[in-house]
Amino acid sequence: MHGMGHLVEVFFLLLAAQLVGWLFARLKQPVVIGEVLAGLLVGPALLGLVHDGEILEFLAELGAIFLLFMVGLETRLRDILAVGKEAFLVAVLGVLFPFVGGYFFGLSIGFAQLPALFLGTALVATSVGITARVLLELGVLSRNYSRIILGAAVIDDVLGLIVLAVVNGVAQSGTFELAVALRITLLSVLFVGGAMLLVPWLRRVSLPRFTLGNPFGFALLVGVGLAALAAIIGLAPIVGAFLAGMLLAEVREELAIEEHVRAVGQFLTPIFFAMVGVRLELTALLSAKVWLVGSGVLLIALVGKLLGGFLGAWSQGFRRAVVVGVGMAPRGEVGLIVAALGLAAGAVNEEEYALVLFMVVGTTLLAPLFLRPAIAWAERAQASGGSP
Fold first, then answer.
1. Is residue 387 domain-resident?
2. Interhelix angle for 144-173 vs 178-204, to 10°?
């Protein structure tokens, strides 16, 4: 009976995501926003038909993994390396500006040093799943600005993880542990670098003999395996899934797996975005102080990533640099994890946690709204042969 209850919740989640997503598509708005609002509608905040739990949380994580796996299948390593310098600059500046801005803003409104550090850290990591969904919807994954965003997101996750390890270490022990930061950095570099070193080997071997007659099963093994390995190391599983997709992109014509992966993703990905809405705590967002101070945090979160992305991708031209900046703006589960860690460690209080929640919701809803017209603006210039 317990399992049947979960099945009913999945049905309501998919039904709401399908209907509200369809409505947003008809209104020419990002479907991902519709799916988030669908989760809010059926979640505890409103209708109460769906509640957060381990099983739905796991399905949502699988949805994020398959989304980035699909995106990876559209992205070859040589395309990422071609924009490697810009991706690195975008990631570094996109971490530096929000962290510094959030930290000093926290101090200016009366936060102690440790809560201010957690606030800055919560503003660091990009939730690339939201941007990737919009890029996939619009069919622009082959564009240089998309490759910069995706490459920067991988580097961004590594940098964000290092910052989080340092700040959390300070909260737990009161001291900066260099050994922890170095270990995480080394493991992250070895993981990403090792995956990239496999690409030349994949180009040389005949993969069908490794698939045992089941290319899709082999693809699932690689995708889930690298996502799990990333999680073991401490990286976000979506980084491993993206790298797995990028590896298999080298032989995607030979394996013919894209349609199968896309079919599974169409089932799981809406669950991921709808569960963002299910988890929203409206009561924490209704305070006038949270709205007032949270607007300042939201502004820093948006401007910090926009400025970092714009300056890092300046070589691509004005309009494409704007697209990169907007594409790096969404925050998501990483920001909430940072705030939750701070709450558990006693470094932040409920009100400070609510500010991070406000920022995550704001960037999740606003970034896709701005990203679509920004991409259309850049594409019009390219089509007309005008200024990029």
1. no
2. 150
